[in-house]
Each structure stands twice: as C-alpha cells, then as structure tokens.
Amino acid sequence: MSATQGGAPLLHNVNVVSSELLPTPDQIKLELPLTAAAARTVAAARQAVQAILDRRDARIFVVVGPCSIHDVDAAREYAGRLRELAARVERTMVVIMRVYFEKPRTTVGWKGLINDPDMDDSFHIEKGIRTARELLLDLAEQGIPAGTEALDPIMPQYLHELVTWTAIGARTTESQTHREMASGLSTPVGFKNGTDGTLTVAINALQSVREPHHFLGITQQGQSAVFRTAGNRYGHLVLRGGGGRPNYDSVSVALAERELARCGLPVNVVIDCSHGNSNKDPALQPLVAANAVNQILEGNQSIVGLMLESNLEWGNQAVTGDRSTLKFGVSVTDACIDWVTTEQLLLDVNARLASCPRIVAQGRKALG
What we know:
By secondary structure, this protein is an alpha/beta fold. It has one domain: TIM Barrel (Alpha-Beta Barrel), CATH 3.20.20. Helices cover 36% and strands 15% of the residues. The protein is built from 11 helices and 12 strands. An 8-stranded parallel β-barrel has the order 3-4-5-6-7-10-11-12, surrounded by 6 helices. A two-stranded antiparallel ribbon has the order 1-2. It is globular, with a radius of gyration of 21 Å. The chain starts with a strand and ends with a helix. The model has no long low-confidence stretch (mean pLDDT 95).
C-alpha cells in the first residue's frame, strides 16, 4: 500500500526515514581554519606535481599510504615516519601520503571514516568531516602533502584546500557528476581505468575534465548553486589493472601512450601498484614498482608517478563493529604492505632513479 499524508498519496521522500542538517563548509572551517603553514605545504606540493606533469620537473610523484584511514592515531604515526622518509628521497620523487576517507563499495560494507567514523553503523557524518579535516590540517602543518579520492561531490567544499592530489576511482571514472566535479577541482586529478581494465572510460573522462562545465553543487554557506568551471588541464591516467589482468607492463603502457596521443591528451601515466596490477596481493606491489622503474630507466617518458597501498603493519583485517578488537596499524579494507617494506621499496626506487638520465640532467641544470 502507498503511504498517505492527509488522505493524499505521499509522493515526496517516500523511502527516506530521516534527514539531519550538517554544518556548512564555512562553519567547519571556522572551527578548523586553514593555517599559513598548511597552505604553504599544499601550494608547494601542488606546484611540484604540476611541474612533473608539465615535464618541468624530471622526478616522479608517489602516492603512498593506507588503503583507507580508520584510525587517526595510526595515520599520524605513519605520517611521521613518511615525513622523514620523504626527505631522504626528495631528489628523485615527491612523496604524497594517501589519505582516503571515503570508500566506494561494490555492494555494501564500511564506507569510510567520513561516513561512519565510529565503524558501528552509527553514521555520524558531521563527526567524520571534522575528524578528516583535523587530520588533513595536522599533516599539512607538518609539511606532509595528502592525496585522496573524491567520491561525494559535496565533500571537496569541506576539505579540498588541504589536498594536493585527487583520484577518481575506477567505479566513478565513468560518472558525469565526477567528471564535472573534477573539472573544477584545484588539484591535479588522476582518473583510473575501468574495473574491466579497459581505457575507454578514463580517456573519455580525461577529455571531458579539460572542458568547462556547469553543474549543481553547494557553496561555502551551504546553499545550492550552479557552478561554472574553466576545466582542469592536470587530469592524467592511472593504470590500475582490471578484468583479471594487470596493465603496468611496457606493452600496456605503450598502448595507453598511443591512445592518449591519438586523442590529443598529455601522455602522462601513473602506475597503481595495487588493485588489479597486484591482483590485490600486497607482496606483488614491490615487483610492480620495480617494473615501472625499469621502464623509466630504459627511457620511458610517460610514467610520472606510482601509487602504493601501505600501512604500519602487513595485510588487512575485518571490520567487526567493535573497534577495541582491531589491531593497530592494520588496514580494514585492502591488504597493504608494511612500513619496513615501504621504506625499503622507496629507498630502492630512489637509488635506482638517481642514475636516471633525465633526473641526472635536471640535477646538473640545477647546479648551473
């Protein structure tokens, strides 16, 4: 039977149980304002990534960190270690911490720290937004750039001036909403190939994101508005494998290069060492990274970055609804490599890239 209101059929919000007002972006930013130190970190890191994509900087950028953030204490400990490591490898790479707060689900499951910060299906989103912004502020003030996935189109208004690099995931690359949103983001944006491993949706997205768009969104004051964008010229392709096949090998990269060039797009490729490229086996991530570095050393010019899923400890664990049972520093989503492996991997990449002709040439130029 149809629901009724005052004897008439109920036609609006038929399946909605309740709604709650969120603080506006302005209100959240008054509570947790952008500091000068944080702004300097984000601006410098964005400029560095843009320079890499423009070929003005011969280094690569590496987005490395937990598959998802569920424990801010563990995230801060990871960040402290990463800050020290980033300084050791800065000659060859720009290190960005992977700080993912939203998780797309194929069916159902924990949707990330913003949606369910207490991990108990209580969905205190207002708490999740504050927690996420506070962590991003803390990282930026320490000089640690952050990369995240843009999933909810409203969330950039709350957080994005604290983000250096943005991913559009394999499940949302085909979404018109996310392409429009990305055209207005202030960060470089990596579009992943589809979950089936094909490039078509990502190539279409890269063509779309460079163009101006008009779409609905919310302002800093929480009002609905029409946004008009200029387009984002720093969109680039992320190869993450899919359809049961990896696509980080030299043949797959060459095919991606050819397709990007055919479509008149910048030939910039980031290799995601996890997901389909590692068959979700963290032990394979170092091998994928080594292969990508081999290609660079052999003269490849298109590979500009790597992505790694890494945490304090190896593997992953199930979300149980009782946070007290969770192991510290272990992923609750995809399995990750541990810190020891991460440190050795990046030091090895740094040592090998130090002899790369394009990086050596840049170093000589810097010395005059």
